[in-house]
């Protein structure tokens, strides 16, 4: 394989890893995908190191000749959760490794995967609201709490998506989300005496709870990727803290002004 094809393959593997990492994949899965793609085309030396914010890849066609080694670095700026894209890249990597796809065909397929549209905002808000409403029932809420959490979560989802699209950072976005969840829960509690502020808040903020980040932090740590595990754990802690800050600010202000009458 000539040097041009070597570089093209490296870029393709890097792009595959970038898609996975940006959409919620664990770091060990990204590393494994990159290594398998490169080794499928007979590279004797492939090394990949992935963190939540960057990908580092080195390949060497000749093995002993360090002049033939190529290293690429990719900075990952933003991350979200779209496990459909992760699954699609997983399927692509298997096809590429087991088949005879060219690098150009592989890049075309990866670009198509990268352009896959996520679920609509309306669908995310609706089903997120339903999940939050049932979470309210798990914590002892009644049917009024269920309805209040459903509406609060729908409004909350639209709000945080709009805030995030305007360039606000992770802390401010989730803090504002916690603020909105607490504020709407208090309003609903004044609408009917059987609506419980605490139960509605617990249910509503479920759409912001960093479940995937916590899961990946544990899985990365178990797999021995301690840097990535600590980084993802810190990210989850930051999100949880920002949510608590927003909720706590509203509740503290409400208690200070009105005495905090909880129904």
Automatic annotation (TrEMBL):
Transmembrane segments: 116-140, 146-164, 171-191, 197-215, 236-257
Family to which this protein belongs: Belongs to the ThrE exporter (TC 2.A.79) family.
Organism: Alkaliphilus hydrothermalis
Protein name as catalogued: Uncharacterized membrane protein YjjP (DUF1212 family)
Coiled coil: none
Residue ranges occupied by any Threonine/serine exporter-like N-terminal domain in the UniProt entry: 13-253
Keywords on record: Cell membrane, Membrane, Transmembrane, Transmembrane helix
Subcellular location: Cell membrane
Domain of life: Bacteria
UniProt membrane topology term: Multi-pass membrane protein
InterPro entries named among the record's database cross-references: ThrE-like_N, ThrE_Dicarb/AminoAcid_Exp
């Amino acid at each position: 394989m000539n040097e041009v094809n070597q570089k093209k393959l490296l870029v393709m593997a890097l792009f595959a890893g970038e898609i996975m990492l940006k959409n919620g994949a664990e770091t060990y899965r990204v590393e494994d995908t990159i290594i398998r793609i490169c080794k499928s085309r007979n590279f004797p030396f492939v090394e990949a190191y992935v963190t939540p914010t960057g990908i580092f890849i080195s390949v060497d066609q000749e093995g002993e000749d360090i002049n033939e080694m190529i290293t690429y670095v990719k900075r990952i700026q933003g991350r979200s959760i779209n496990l459909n894209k992760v699954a699609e890249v997983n399927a692509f990597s298997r096809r590429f490794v087991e088949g005879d796809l060219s690098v150009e065909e592989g890049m075309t397929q990866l670009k198509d995967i990268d352009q896959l549209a996520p679920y609509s905002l309306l669908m995310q808000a609706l089903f997120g609201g339903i999940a939050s409403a049932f979470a309210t029932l798990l914590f002892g809420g009644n049917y009024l709490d269920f309805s209040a959490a459903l509406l609060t979560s729908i409004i909350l989802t639209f709000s945080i998506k709009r805030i995030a699209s305007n360039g606000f950072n992770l802390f401010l976005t989730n803090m504002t989300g916690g603020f909105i969840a607490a504020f709407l829960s208090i309003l609903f509690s004044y609408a009917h005496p059987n609506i419980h502020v605490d139960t509605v808040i617990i249910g509503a903020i479920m759409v912001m709870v960093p479940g995937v980040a916590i899961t990946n932090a544990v899985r990365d740590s178990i797999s021995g990727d301690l840097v990535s595990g600590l980084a993802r754990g810190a990210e989850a802690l930051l999100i949880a803290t920002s949510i608590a800050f927003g909720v706590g600010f509203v509740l503290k202000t409400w208690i200070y002004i009105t005495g905090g009458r909880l129904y």
